[in-house]
Design a protein that fits this description.
alpha/beta, Rossmann fold, eight-stranded mixed beta sheet, 6 helices, globular
Length: 235
């Protein structure tokens, strides 16, 4: 990235976990990174940690579950005359109550889809006017959302939301192809985070490598595809 203009990249849900590590790795590669999250205090603490390694980071408070919050965040960046090369939709939830689709009412499913599916769509809609062409949108997904793999029986609402996100990725990739904005989904794998738990086999650093690769190196022609570890996966 040293011989290219400094890219500006927005990472949602970046105050901890994979989102924070994605931001950290992007800063190491010379990007200007804007981290977002819904908790201002936690986000500010994350920014302090990142600023110990690079001064090229800033923050914007945003709750992807609320349209007005997303709209306000995009307006803040517009007022700062910020243009984005890449948007990384990392913010997501996995609820403890997520154990069955038919064993309880639909509140768990609705809440999960609101954050994990509608959230990325809200972000794309609100920040698209700020995106450069060519540009890139990256949606953090999961192999739990694949329609080509067996159902594992874990966190079904979360898995359904990732199936929906994969479909959203394909359709928005088609819509934005004329604007030369590529759209991809990527699975970080099962990673040791608050969400993934300590029994997960992958490190946060490894989980972040794929999204960072998509943001900085992958060809634009790969739009509409689903990846893990730089390899295309079946949907």
């Amino acid at each position: 990235m040293n011989d290219k203009p400094t890219p500006t990249i927005l990472v949602t849900g970046a105050n901890r976990g994979i989102g924070f590590e994605i931001a950290r790795q992007l800063l190491k590669k010379g990007a200007h990174v804007i981290i977002s999250g819904r908790d201002e205090l936690k986000l500010a603490e994350a920014l302090k940690q990142l600023e110990r390694e690079s001064s090229s980071a800033e923050m914007v408070v945003m709750d992807v579950g609320k349209f007005e919050s997303v709209k306000a965040a995009s307006q803040q960046l517009a007022e700062r005359n910020i243009q984005l090369d890449v948007v990384i939709n990392n913010a997501a939830i996995l609820l403890r109550e997520d154990v069955s689709l038919i064993g309880h009412d639909d509140e768990v499913l609705k809440t999960t889809i609101n954050i994990n599916c509608y959230g990325p769509v809200r972000v794309i809609h609100a920040f698209l006017p700020l995106m450069k062409s060519p540009g890139r949108i990256i949606n953090l997904s999961s192999e739990g959302g694949s329609m080509s793999e067996p159902v594992g029986g874990w966190s079904p609402a979360y898995c359904v939301s990732k199936t929906m996100l994969n479909s959203i990725t394909r359709h928005i990739a088609f819509e934005l192809s004329a604007k030369h904005i590529s759209v991809n989904a990527i699975s970080p794998g099962w990673v040791k985070t608050t969400m993934g738990g300590q029994s997960a086999p992958r490190s946060i650093e490894k989980g972040a490598e794929g999204p960072v690769w998509l943001a900085t190196e992958a060809p634009q022609s790969m739009t509409g595809k689903f990846f893990r570890d730089k390899a295309e996966l079946k949907w």
